[in-house]
């Protein structure tokens, strides 16, 4: 494997013109594939400057302007820039890129192109071509007398990046970052680099996957690494500091290059694919892609070795390997967590009565809990104790809804409790509400809780009655308005002709299936002209209901449609 250690500070890199080197944030994308025949728009319009200008402008795709409002588009229509792009296309083809790739790269690397334009214009204005002595220029060639396009051609060639710099910008890497990363790729030929990036792109970004999900993982990867890093990962950590990847703002394949640069130097068939297979074990390709997006470090040796230690740790705890793989699939960051750290968290779980059998659903549904620091878990436990729960109840809540213990106390849990208290839920009722339905602590206040409460009040219930319903049966806050609350309420009022006070007294009514239980039992009581409360009608099991309302010992079939007259 090629070495890619950080270069020494004395390494000479291409410089930006003072007029071009300004803070900016570019996100660019590849445009549609272009034909390679003689009728290509580029080939047919080389001699026409206006056509060249409009075609290149149409080809370039931009998604964000510079942070300070400045962007190269202010000069994108000038012939000088168009000629510069043509020069870049020419030199990219010399370095082995196809005509189609060269055109796309030139069209999607505006900062690089305008850097070259700025360099050439600066030398033109100052008349310094005589002192610009470069080995790539033929002897006795007067640079000042060459065409602008030729000057840009030689300027690009003098940078020494062999086409890598504009290519990196064209796939979304900021030019400032591309200047640094291109130094690591000095031994890579442009065609091979394009092929490798396309290979990784094909694995990571099928059409169903959103590239924008990747950028948020850089900080998380570093935050949760608790095992000794190998050379690749250690160099990547240093690389993060250089590239400022931890601050986000990166998307797509460019992020993968920054999150794990060694991928560029690996042999795809001999190194990358076998390591992917070590984690795949029958997984669908889309799951492997998602894991790579979230955690490209799975390709590093130290992470692969730690995976075996994690399996051994959970095997000791009698957690099936299939459950561990499910946890890794959903939260691959645990691959960077040491077994010692995991052990300390599991020991904390034991304090709340969590045995080995109960550990499995916790690990599979909320593997991120294993990455928490003991004090972070203790903060949630202390919050639960504030509400009034003992350790046994806290353990039950942990088993039922472990996601709560991975949540922020101040930003999530305390806000939900305050919202319920402000609505009118008393402190004594609050303990019952959370114990019966702890999942409500994870529901969105504005988009879920408040709309459901508002719906109940919109049908004629008072806030006090809604509070009473929540205290009696808190899972009511988890039911969809359109799928559950509204249709069941319509049947209650329009068909059953019952008053609203019935659901205030028995809100559990909303928990029963409308078609399988509510309607069949109502038709039975109606056909026998029997009056009964919702609780009496629905709370009994089938045998009890049959004995009391149908006069038989066992209920085999309950009609799901209204009985015919006289039946």
From TrEMBL:
Gene3D superfamilies: Transcription termination factor 3, mitochondrial. One of its GO terms (molecular function) is nucleic acid binding. Coiled coil: none annotated. GO terms for biological process: DNA-templated transcription termination. Keywords: Transcription, Transcription regulation, Transcription termination, Transit peptide. It comes from the Eukaryota. The keyword rRNA-binding does not apply. It holds the Pfam family mTERF. Belongs to the mTERF family. This is mTERF domain-containing protein, mitochondrial.
